[in-house]
C-alpha cells in the first residue's frame, strides 16, 4: 500500500468556483459595500454645545435635509447623477445615486428651543446642537479606578 500526500484542500474546485464568480468585470465595483451608504460620524462635547461631524464628500449644500423632532435628529442627503454617452451600443452605463440617512437620539441636556447650526465645507457636514443652561454648569465627575 502506498501513501498519497494531500495538500489540505479536500475540495479544490471550491476555490476555483469562488474565483470565477468573484471576478465579474461588470460587477467589479463596491456595489455590496455597506459602509459607503453610512457616513462616518464624530461627536464632540463642548461646554456650550455638541459638535457633530459627518464625512459626506461629493454632496452639495442643497442635497442635505436636517430635521429635529422631539429628541431625534435626522440627517439625510440625496444626490443623483447620470452619466450618459452618445453611443447607443454600450457595454456599461453608469447611474450614480448617493443617499444616506442617519438618526441620532439626542440627550436630555440638548436645548430644543435653539436652532441647530449646520455648515458644509470640504466634504464635512458640521452640526452644532446647543446645550441647556443647566447642563452648561454641570461639571463632569472623575471616577478613579481602584
UniProtKB/TrEMBL annotation:
Q: What InterPro entries does its record include?
A: A-crystallin/Hsp20_dom, HSP20-like_chaperone, Small_HSP
Xref: Pfam families: HSP20
Residues forming the SHSP domain are 32-146
In terms of SUPFAM superfamilies, this protein maps to:
HSP20-like chaperones (SSF49764)
Q: Name the domain of life.
A: Bacteria
Q: Which PANTHER family does this UniProt record tie to the protein? A: HEAT-SHOCK PROTEIN 20 FAMILY MEMBER (PTHR11527)
Homology family: Belongs to the small heat shock protein (HSP20) family.
What protein does this entry describe?
Hsp20/alpha crystallin family protein
The species is Flagellimonas sp. MMG031
Amino acid at each position: 500500500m502506498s501513501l498519497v500526500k494531500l495538500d489540505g484542500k479536500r475540495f479544490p474546485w471550491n476555490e476555483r468556483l469562488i474565483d470565477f464568480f468573484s471576478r465579474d468585470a461588470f460587477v467589479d465595483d463596491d456595489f455590496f459595500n455597506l459602509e459607503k451608504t453610512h457616513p462616518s460620524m464624530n461627536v464632540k462635547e463642548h461646554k456650550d454645545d455638541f459638535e457633530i461631524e459627518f464625512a459626506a464628500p461629493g454632496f452639495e449644500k442643497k442635497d442635505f435635509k436636517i430635521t429635529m423632532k422631539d429628541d431625534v435628529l435626522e440627517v439625510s442627503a440625496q444626490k443623483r447623477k447620470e452619466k450618459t454617452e452618445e453611443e447607443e451600443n454600450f457595454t456599461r452605463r453608469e447611474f450614480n445615486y448617493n443617499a444616506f440617512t442617519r438618526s441620532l437620539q439626542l440627550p436630555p441636556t440638548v436645548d430644543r428651543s435653539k436652532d441647530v447650526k449646520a455648515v458644509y465645507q470640504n466634504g464635512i457636514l458640521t452640526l452644532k446642537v446647543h446645550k441647556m443652561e443647566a447642563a452648561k454648569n454641570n461639571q463632569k465627575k472623575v471616577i478613579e479606578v481602584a
